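Subject: Sanity check before I submit

Could someone independently write out the structure tokens for this chain? I want to compare against mine line by line before I put it in a report. The sequence has 65 residues.
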Amino acid sequence: MWHELRGRLGEDVFWRLVREWPASQDNGNADYNEITGWWSEESGEDVAGFFDDWLLGETTPELAS
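---
Independent answer below. Compare away.
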């Protein structure tokens, strides 16, 4: 899933968000909507559906080519 998200967002954005996420939560906890909302807001792209497909779907999504 993370590899696919990195391909979708691009290397720079993905790795920036990976580094920023823990600090944005003061190394605490977050629920599903907070995580997906944060990634969407910070990336500038609505990735909530991406997370839904990968984490809540009944089957694994097709991999991007």
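---
OP: Matches mine. For the report I'm noting this point. The chain has a mean pLDDT of 93.
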